[in-house]
Write a structure and sequence with these properties.
Elements lengths: L1 H37 L2 H15 L5 H37 L6 H30 L1 H9 L9 H33 L1
Helix pairs in contact: 1-3, 3-4, 4-6
Length: about 190
């Protein structure tokens, strides 16, 4: 049963990594298209008119471009962080399948995994701070969106996962010391 679960987790991480790559490609293509579209004065005028009429939001041409570039950078950084989270998790699973538990490479992989999750969590926190700093403007948009702006569960989940991962890292670090002591006695 253990081997089956580890194989399922490996497949899930592979699938998620492929989805991350596809998402990055789509974000880059959409970002390029958006930047091209926003470089056209007529498109900026039309987008500003729609946002003004529908949501009461007034944005100029340079503001649109900066906003879109910032959002695309955050999304790409988030996708890259998720890709590395899956990669390091998959490598740890591979070592566990080979019955390599308290080894230095697992500790290094856990540390890299912890850093990747911390980067993703920091990006999520910065994203929500950006949303709440523009809360008055975004309130009208949020009413028509399914985004939960009052209780950002992704931040809570990320912080919880980060805390659990840190505890696992500490357990592995302590396990490494115990393993070294046991090996030196034998």
């Amino acid at each position: 049963m253990r081997k089956f679960i580890l194989n399922v987790l490996t497949v899930i991480t592979w699938i998620y990594q492929v989805l991350c790559v596809l998402s990055a490609v789509i974000f880059v293509l959409a970002g390029g298209f958006t930047i091209f579209a926003l470089s056209q004065p007529e498109a900026v005028t039309e987008a500003s008119k729609v946002m003004s009429d529908e949501f009461g939001v007034q944005l100029g041409g340079n503001t649109w471009l900066g906003l879109m570039l910032g959002l695309f950078c955050f999304f790409i950084a988030g996708v890259v962080a998720q890709f590395f989270v899956c990669r390091y998790a998959r490598l740890i699973i591979k070592n566990i399948k080979q019955e390599i538990y308290f080894a230095m490479k697992n500790l290094q992989l856990l540390k890299k995994l912890l850093i990747s999750v911390a980067v993703y969590t920091a990006l999520t926190v910065i994203f929500y701070i950006g949303i709440y700093s523009n809360y008055a403007t975004l309130t009208k948009i949020a009413k028509t969106s399914s985004v939960d702006m009052l209780y950002p569960t992704s931040i809570v989940n990320s912080l919880f996962f980060l805390a659990i991962l840190y505890v696992v890292y500490l357990v592995f670090k302590y396990g490494m010391k115990v393993q070294e002591d046991a090996d030196s006695i034998i």
